[in-house]
Amino acid sequence: MRDATWRRFAIARWRRAEVTLLTRLSLVMLGSALGGALRYGVAEWAQGLRGPWTPAGPDTAAFPIGILIVNVLGSLLLGLIVGLLANDVSSGAAQLRLLLAVGLCGGFTTFSTFSLDTVRLLQSGAPGVAAANVALSLVLGVAGCGAGLALAGTFARP
Questions:
Q1: Which residues contact 54 (CB under 8 A, 6 or more apart)?
Q2: CA 21 → CA 17, 61, 76, distances in Å?
Q3: DSSP structural state of residue 125
Q4: CA-to-CA distance for 150 and 106, rounded, in angstroms?
Q5: Distance from CA of residue 140 to its chain's centroid?
Q6: Pick from 111, 104, 110: which is nearest to 77 by CA?
Q7: pLDDT tens by residue, the chain, 158 residues
Q8: Nearest Cα to Cα of residue 70 among 25, 26, 40
Q9: Which of 86, 95, 94 lies closest to 30, judged by CA?
Q10: Could you write out the DSSP letters of every residue in 60-124?
Q11: By the 8 A CB rule, do 84 and 155 touch?
């Protein structure tokens, strides 16, 4: 009888853990899908922007302004989320971190695309544009994250 009780307990515990894992994965997947769609929308919008990053001719490499905007906004958003949820250890905050920080920001920001754009700029003979992309992405991304953390501090509870 004791073995049967233990077996039922173990199965119930395993099912709760399975549901918890599925919930966490679902939150990350939902956030990633939203972040990816948002990244696509911002990058498409940025294609229509005109400025000094716009190529002068068909052989001129274009600065990837859309990816820069996405990465800076994503860094700002990640800093804000982490800052706002830093001291909250509730299960709701943990779920928000999974949905927003891991999922949404992970799907929205695009380090792999940034890297590919930089390599393509180098391959197209535009080392200056590639260097500007690296420098601006790094400096503005770090500044955006710092600004998000500082902004979150203004909302912090006393």
A1: 62
A2: 6, 45, 28
A3: T
A4: 21
A5: 15
A6: 104
A7: 567 776 666 666 665 666 588 899 999 999 999 999 999 999 888 877 776 666 666 556 678 888 888 989 988 998 898 888 888 877 788 899 999 989 999 999 878 778 878 888 998 999 999 999 999 999 999 999 999 999 988 886 65
A8: 40
A9: 95
A10: SPPP-HHHHHHHHHHHHHHHHHHHHHTT--SHHHHHHIIIIIIIIHHHH--HHHHHHHHHHHHHT
A11: yes
pTM above 0.85, yes or no: no
Distance of alpha carbon 40 from alpha carbon 30, whole angstroms? 16
Which tokens hold the place of 157? 């509870």
CA distance 66 to 106: 16
Per the structure block, which two tokens stand in for 135? Answer: 């420098």
Burial of 58 (0-12, 13-18, 19+ CB in 10 A): exposed
Q: How far apart are CA 31 and CA 21, in angstroms?
A: 15
Residues across the chain: 158
Q: Which amino acid is at 41?
A: G
